[in-house]
Design goal:
The protein is about 5% helix and about 40% strand. It is mainly beta.
Length: about 200
């Protein structure tokens, strides 16, 4: 059994780290994300990390919270809040900012690279979107968000629906494409499988 080793990180106090991913084609190359626009990169399997600047994510006066990073081959994705989507096709050497519609319900909390030019993105309201053309078009995989379902259910008089409060902040996808999400307050969770309407 190997032991854990503490690794020093070049981050400011108060930064919260949120996700980590390594490039499948080069397992020594990875990215670590967090609050306050934090992106760190390693090329030695995580022994040392250095700050990474992505110019297309610094063009505005926002202080992004980078929530999720995922790779499939050399293709990678990053999502954050306020709404930002970054894409790379060269293992993170360069990143392109992909425009997102302001109509998306909620904030992006999770992204999963699923193949060439394809990914699945999840918002904190339980919406799941799928792209197959590098993020230029997204198709809804669920008919409505959790909030919309519960608002409709509550207005119909069904009891029990009002117990849901908060948004999702923890989402995970299994290799078969099914999801589990836990609410930010820990009082609610949902599962979804491909083919389900909601």
């Amino acid at each position: 059994m190997s032991e854990w080793e503490r690794v020093g990180l070049p981050i400011d106090p108060g930064v919260v780290l949120l996700d980590i991913a390594f490039v499948p084609d080069d397992p020594s190359h990875g990215f670590l994300l967090g609050t306050r626009q934090t992106i760190l990169e390693t090329k030695d399997g995580g022994r040392t990390w250095f700050p990474r600047s992505i110019p297309s994510a610094e063009d505005e006066d926002f202080n992004y919270r980078f929530n999720s990073v995922s790779f499939s081959g050399k293709e990678g994705w990053i999502v954050g809040k306020p709404a930002i989507l970054l894409h790379t096709k060269d293992a993170g050497d360069s990143w392109e900012r992909i425009p997102l519609s302001a109509q998306l319900p909620g904030d992006m909390v999770y992204i999963q690279a699923t193949g060439e030019q394809s990914a699945e993105m999840v918002t904190d309201e339980g919406a799941i979107y799928v792209t197959s053309n590098r993020g230029y078009n997204w198709k809804a995989a669920v008919q409505e968000t959790v909030s919309a379902t519960l608002n409709r259910t509550v207005s119909s008089g069904i009891s029990g629906a009002s117990y849901y409060t908060g948004t999702f902040n923890t989402v995970n996808r299994s290799p078969d494409g099914s999801y589990v999400a836990v609410s930010s307050r820990g009082n609610f969770f949902l599962t979804w499988e491909p083919g389900q309407v909601r």
